[in-house]
């Protein structure tokens, strides 16, 4: 049986367009949630290049730039688009329910 788990990331009103926020969770790595012009996206928070928190980076449109070595990812797809990052980032489907933003975590 599929047991899709959803994780509350934030409220729509908590995250302004152009902002990113870290979401810690008890049972796995932290996530980052992004508001790109009113659309929400979620990825792992840890950069695939090193141990840096992407939520401390700079969100420019759909590009999150890591604050450590300035590599970057497309937050919509997780694709590594700026060197030195070369390994894509894990992304999670996002669902907005009323004022709440959830990541669908799949089966864990
Ligand atoms: S740790 Fe993110 S670019 Fe190096």
Characterise the protein shown here.
- The strands form 3 sheets. The chain has a 4-stranded antiparallel beta sheet, with no helix packed on it. Strands 5-6-7-8 form a 4-stranded antiparallel beta sheet, with no helix packed on it. Strands 1-11-10 form a 3-stranded antiparallel beta sheet, with no helix packed on it.
- It has strands at residues 6-11, 19-25, 28-36, 39-44, 58-60, 63-65, 72-74, 80-82, 91-92, 94-97, 100-104.
- It contains no helices and 11 strands.
- The protein is mainly β.
- The protein has a single domain (6-104), classed as Rieske Iron-sulfur Protein (3-layer Sandwich).
- FE2/S2 (inorganic) cluster is lined by residues 47, 49-50, 52, 66, 68-69, 71, 84-85.
Mean pLDDT: 94
The dominant shape is globular
How far apart, in Å, are the first and last alpha carbons? 12 Å
CATH evolutionary superfamily: Rieske [2Fe-2S] iron-sulphur domain
Structural class: mainly beta
Q: Which CATH first-tier class would you pick?
A: Mainly Beta
Please indicate the percent range of residues in DSSP E strands (runs of 2 or more). over 45%
Q: Can I get a quick summary?
A:
This protein has 108 residues and is mainly beta. It contains no helices and eleven strands.
């Amino acid at each position: 049986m599929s047991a899709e788990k959803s994780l509350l990331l934030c409220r729509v009103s908590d995250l302004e367009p152009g902002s990113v926020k870290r979401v810690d969770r008890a049972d796995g790595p932290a996530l980052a949630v992004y508001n790109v012009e009113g659309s929400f996206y979620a990825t792992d928070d840890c950069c695939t290049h090193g141990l840096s928190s992407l939520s401390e980076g700079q969100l420019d449109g759909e590009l999150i730039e890591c604050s450590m070595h300035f590599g970057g990812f497309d937050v919509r797809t997780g694709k590594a688009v700026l060197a030195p990052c070369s390994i894509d980032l894990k992304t999670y489907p996002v669902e907005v329910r009323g004022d709440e933003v959830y990541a669908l975590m799949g089966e864990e």
